[in-house]
Automatic annotation (TrEMBL):
InterPro entries: NAD(P)-bd_dom_sf, Sc_DH/Rdtase_CS, SDR_fam. It comes from Acuticoccus mangrovi. GO terms for molecular function: oxidoreductase activity, acting on the CH-OH group of donors, NAD or NADP as acceptor. Gene3D superfamilies: NAD(P)-binding Rossmann-like Domain. Belongs to the short-chain dehydrogenases/reductases (SDR) family. Transmembrane segments: none annotated. It holds the Pfam family adh_short_C2. It comes from the Bacteria. This is SDR family oxidoreductase. PANTHER family: SHORT-CHAIN DEHYDROGENASE_REDUCTASE FAMILY PROTEIN, SHORT-CHAIN DEHYDROGENASES/REDUCTASES FAMILY MEMBER. SUPFAM superfamilies: NAD(P)-binding Rossmann-fold domains. PROSITE patterns: ADH_SHORT (PS00061).
Length: 261
């Protein structure tokens, strides 16, 4: 049965975050596309000193990352994540915040997911968050401050058909966020996560290209439209800055009201 849903218009937004980022030294892990790319662009526009990482093996190039410092990084490798974090710290003269937006979504149910699929998806989505935390802990502990922002998903909070490994990985990120927040608080640093809903990114491109699937996505959003990458990026940047100085251990849902229904 076909579905016809009229999508609401995207509101006009200024090209900056809603926080002052002058002097903030930020690393965005997974900056080559989507929300990570938007976060870099917004942070640079707001005056932050920014480094970004990308994964060249999936066709990204340095031109995809809108900042001067671009580092290669495979988040499944602790060695590569640590090297990227340390290189960013040197290049920026310190590191105040790290946003980990690298991730992968695959539409696979339980019967379609074998051990290799499960381990690969968790290795990127959960392993990348874990590796980033390990890499930044030394710096934040030494400095007695810092903000780590991880990426969860609305699907980490509610069920979703045919997203077995993805849902598991994002639910695990929620638990990791809260545990790390307690640990990092002992030396004055913060850990939070952002949980996007349906967003117009490369991750949702296949679904959006199918008119019926696109209509189904829009129909589940109370605000009547899909989100834009910059709308999620603004939430992540807020958590990364001193504007959120008393917020830690929180999973901020940015889903247009999907999980409220």
């Amino acid at each position: 049965m076909s579905m016809v849903v009229e999508e609401a218009e995207l509101p006009e937004r200024a090209g900056k975050p809603l926080v002052d980022m002058v002097g903030v030294r930020l690393l965005v892990i997974g900056a080559g596309s989507g929300i990570g790319q938007a976060a870099v662009a917004l942070a640079v526009a707001a005056g932050a000193d920014v480094a970004g990482t990308m994964l060249p093996s999936v066709g990204e190039s340095g031109d995809d990352v809108p900042c001067d410092i671009v580092l290669p990084c495979d988040v499944t490798s602790q060695e590569e994540v640590t090297e990227a974090v340390e290189s960013a710290e040197i290049a920026l003269g310190g590191l105040d915040a790290v946003i980990v937006s690298a991730g992968v979504f695959e539409h696979r149910g339980l019967g379609e997911t074998d051990d290799a699929d499960f381990e690969r998806i968790l290795g990127i989505n959960l392993g990348g968050a874990f590796h980033a935390a390990k890499a930044v802990e030394r710096i934040f502990r030494r400095d007695g401050t810092g903000s780590l922002v991880l990426f969860s998903s609305q699907i980490g909070l509610v069920g979703h058909r045919r997203a077995t490994a993805y849902a598991a990985s994002k639910a695990a990120v929620n638990g990791l966020t809260k545990t790390l927040a307690v640990e990092f608080a002992t030396f004055g640093a913060r850990v939070n996560a952002v949980a996007p809903g349906p967003i117009e990114t490369p991750m949702t491109a296949i679904a959006r290209a199918d008119p019926e699937r696109h209509a189904g996505l829009v129909a589940q959003v109370p605000l009547g439209r899909l989100g834009a990458p910059d709308e999620v990026a603004r939430a992540a940047l807020f958590l990364a800055t001193p504007a959120a100085a008393f917020i830690t251990g929180h999973v901020l849902v940015v889903d247009g009201g999907v999980t409220a229904v």
